[in-house]
Amino acid sequence: MKRIVLLLTVLCAPLFLANSSAHKFYVSITKIEYVQDQQSLQIITKIFIDDFEDVLQERYDPDLILDSTNDDKTVDLYIEKYLLKKLEIKANGAKVTPRYLGREYDIETLVCYLEVTGIKELMSLEVTNDFLFELFPEQQNIVHVKKDDKRRSMILLKDDSTDMLKFN
Questions:
Q1: pLDDT per residue as tens digits for the range 30-66
Q2: What is the DSSP letter of 107?
């Protein structure tokens, strides 16, 4: 009998420990592509819906709900306001302001579309991405940048939320 109890304890212990030490992974992914013939930076940001909803509720409206059935234009205003406050871009050393184009839902993520126009040539790109740090200090914001056939990436953290890429 002692062997059975010992065996069950050994087999079940990892399950209890896994549940007690489990934690959520906080991440956003932003893709920035320079499209030369359109002289634009095309930006797609993916953020987990529940995390983004938490931040928007905390900041703007505790009753706000992010889901595909909510067509309330106020939601877009809050999303745009938040994204433009937390995402800063400098192209060739000059600050540029993205234009919010809209959003769509993809399973557990909110996909947001932005664009910067009037970029004749891209020599350098500096990105500051402070998404969700105010609620989730362990948040990681991954930024993928594509120019021509070159792809580069940045991982931005709460204490290191800015990085720059130079294109020669």
A1: 999 999 999 999 999 999 999 999 999 999 999 999 9
A2: T
